[in-house]
Protein: Secreted protein
Organism: Planobispora takensis
Amino acid sequence: MTPVPTHQAATPQAPAPPVTASPPPAAPGGVPVPASAPAAPPAFPPRAGRLSRRLQSVPGRVLVITTAAVVALALLFGALSSSFQSVRDGLDVIGHDAGPQVVATADLYFALSDMDTQVANVLLIGDEHGLGKGRQRALDVYEQRRSDAGRAVLQASALAGADPAERRTVRAVLDGLGRYERLAARAMLLDEQARHRAGPPPQRVLEIYRQATDLMRLELLPMAYNLTLESGTIVRRAHEGQSSAVRLGQVLVAGAGLLALGGLLWLQIFLARRFRRVFNPALVVATVIAGMYTLTGFTVLGNETGILLEAKRDGFDSVLTLARARAVGNSMHGDQSRYLLDPERADTYEQTYLDKSQAVLFAPSGNLGAYYKAVAAGVDDYPGRQPFLGLVGQESARSGLPGHEAAVVEVLRRYEEFQRADRTMRGLGPRQAVEQRVDALEQRFGDYDAALVELAGLHRTAFDRAVRGGEEQVEELWFLLPLAVISTAVLIVAGVWPRLSEYR
């Protein structure tokens, strides 16, 4: 019997078949069904997603609309504040700062020219006892004009600021004024020692006066005139800049106001629809305040543009023009004294008198005789078809101020009388001409100058009234602006906060 083995030898096993993915189940009809795609990553990071969901919620949308309305209101009040400041700056420059100082530079020209006129009067009168009061009056006026010129130079220096060209001109005027005063003092001292009768002084006195008057007419007066023109440019630039800023502010106020009103109405409608309320009283009041300030600010800024123009054109420009007319007129009045004082230069002084007369009131003519006739005809025909030209002629073309036309008529009438007295003086002998110059002609010029001052006073009053009215309008809104800002902010919070608290 064959023995049974205790164990059998291991038989080799076949390798396991590779595991393969089972094919996708087939849809009916044999079309395989695609496997599901892996999940897509989230569109927003977790924090951004939460922020987006918050903004899309009702409280978030309320906050977004409220923020937009508040930003628009901030733009509105910022535009109002900036525009009001531009108006205040413009009125300060024209009414209180550069404007009065520019007129002071015109007064410098007047003071300088009158100094030379009074020196000529002193030398012309001489030691004539019958005209002694005229000599003393001329000396007193000369001292007064010296003081006026000193103050005007200081104001011109302040207006020059850091401008190197204007400061050099002011220093040159000061240096020239010192030299003129020394020459004038020497001429009057020698004239007093000569004790001559009324008429031309001794030759040595005349030579010194020629140096003084040439210095005044050829150097000092042109420099003073240039200072007036340069200073006037400062005011014109300031006016143009501030007027442009106000017009831009008016546009910004209108745009920001419409945005603010749109934002508040949007917020009002959203709250009414979402919370089923007809209206929100606090937001209604805030909307009314915003609308009121938009309309009022737009209107006031438009008015202020007109006020700046009125103050500049009808006030400052006219006052400056008349100040220049007064200064030039005073200088030509001095040429009458110089015409009698210096016979060798009489023809020159007669021509310069005609040139200055044409600058004051232009009338087509080639000589003094024709000018007298043209002025008389023009004054009789005023207001005629052809307006006058020249400094006073510019005023004859203006209108609108109460009493303006009557004041212009008075100026023209007095000017024609002054020219008639000048014609009489030039037809007299030396002795009678001096008496005419010191007596009747002086009176006629005084009447004309007083009428010119009265006309300038009308424009000065209109200028002050325009500046004061513009300042009052701005100050009223400027004072209430912080109150409007605070009250609007409180009302918006009061209108929105209760609705947001419902979601807590």
